[in-house]
Amino acid sequence: MVEGCACMGLLMRRLCSWPKLVSAVVVLLFFGNLILMAGLIDWHLAVQLIANKSGGNKWSDENNDDTNGSSCNLSGEMLASALARMRTAECRSAARRIVCSIDQQTPDSLPNSCPAYDDTQHTEYVGCFRDSPNHRVLSGHYYKFRTYNSPTYCVNMCLRAGYRYAGVEFYDECFCGDVFVSSVISLPESACLQYVCNNRSLFCGGYNAVAVYKTGVTAKPLLIVNYTESDDSLNNVQILFLLQLNGRNTRQGLVAAIRSAGFENVHLMDKRYATIWAGATLLSMVLDVLETTLYSLKWTTWDFVLNLSESDFPLLSMAELETHLARHISALNKGRIFLSSHGYDTARFIQKQGLEYVFLQCEDRMWRIMKRRKFPRSIRLDGGSDWVVLSRDFVLYALSDEELPRSLRQFFSNVLLPVESFFHTLAANSKYCAQTVKGNLHVTNWMRRQGCRCVMLKEIVDWCGCSPLVFRSSDIFKITIEVRASKKMQIFQEFSYRLI
């Protein structure tokens, strides 16, 4: 009886609190509907993301109208994660379209007209050689392909990174390099037929025996030009300065004031671009400006274009700059371009730069949506600084409808930091590979331990990145005229430096 009274008392207390419970449910439903209507949560995609993590990683959006009327199998945890975090239907539709069409838009191969590339040597067998962990025959870069490997696949990977040779070993190993180590020892061909590649159709070397093939790259032409004093006897050179001004600041007002004063050699673009860090529209901006300059403004007499930010300042005089560039506008040297390369293993650069992934710029950020499954054969990737000095001849080629520049413009529309790779890659695979001068007219204060970060970039890009540091009093020695003039390997970096 006591137990019954206790239970009855508990029941009465619960009944008394029932109106509060109803009110709480109503409030919860109200705010839940607001969240759903605002598009902050996509329950379908969130559930799908959980399903992908639990297994399968494949799903079909049968109601998707963005794939030319046919259903498209969307796979991968990256895509599901990006879709679940996107706020707008427009971005999700754009992501689906790219994933469903990227392989069809990527050509199987592209023409490589670089004089230092011979397509007849692509996959040419060199021989079987003794190898060891302490004395590698090819020491440029090492890949380990656990799911797929073959001589052709390894050759294409090494070619993509610009190496002359590729070697397969121990069924899943791929080595790249430009030269053989000294005292290389040849082995009978049977020594490299010990292990079947993990595709089960070809042989991929042996134990401490590497089968070496040529990639087609025969050399890596790169011009080095030393500092020279100004010379008034040289022909005048006309330079087009492309100034990238970010934000609503006094510099934009200054340029607008100059234009309103009637200076015919100054033009302020009316179109604006979302130039977020690493954004794909940075390349669109540069190409659009160059196209406007040549075809709308009819400015066709300039010799070189040099892009600058609002934080660039000159170190040497215009006369010295003009003297150096004037030496590269003769009939023999027409089309020379000045690019600063990454300066280390290209294969590692490709990985750190995110070139193996497909990105989408939307909602003022860059989304990583998938691993890139396909690259054009015969093409090597390259990159470095996005501050460049380009000849008018090269710019006309970059804007042309020829197969290589047209296809690369499409390829780099879904690439992170595209200006840091587009012009470098175009030059490396065309006749301009022999016209590329090492150096880009900028000196930059890099200190990787302080300038590289991930946490600060998570809100705008699914990747990590590095930025240069400001020049402090302790860095003044880096920008003295004597130091810059002695930097033979950096060509024109003495002319300007960047403060951020």
Automatic annotation (TrEMBL):
Reactions accelerated catalytically: UDP-alpha-D-xylose + L-seryl-[protein] = 3-O-(beta-D-xylosyl)-L-seryl-[protein] + UDP + H(+)
EC top class named in words: transferase
TM stretches of this protein: 21-41
Gene Ontology process terms (BP): chondroitin sulfate proteoglycan biosynthetic process; heparan sulfate proteoglycan biosynthetic process
EC identifiers of the protein: 2.4.2.26
Keyword terms: Disulfide bond, Endoplasmic reticulum, Glycoprotein, Glycosyltransferase, Golgi apparatus, Membrane, Metal-binding, Signal-anchor, Transferase, Transmembrane, Transmembrane helix
Coiled coil stretches, renumbered: none
Topology versus the membrane: Single-pass type II membrane protein
PROSITE patterns found in the cross-reference section: WSC
Domain of life: Eukaryota
Keyword Cytoplasm belongs to the record: no
Residue ranges constituting the WSC domain according to the UniProt record: 122-216
Pfam families: Branch, WSC
GO (cellular component) term, any one: endoplasmic reticulum membrane
Pathway stated in the Swiss-Prot or TrEMBL entry: Glycan metabolism; heparan sulfate biosynthesis; Glycan metabolism; chondroitin sulfate biosynthesis
Subcellular location per the Swiss-Prot or TrEMBL entry: Endoplasmic reticulum membrane; Golgi apparatus membrane
GO molecular function: metal ion binding; protein xylosyltransferase activity
Family: Belongs to the glycosyltransferase 14 family. XylT subfamily.
Identification of the protein by name: protein xylosyltransferase
Organism: Gongylonema pulchrum
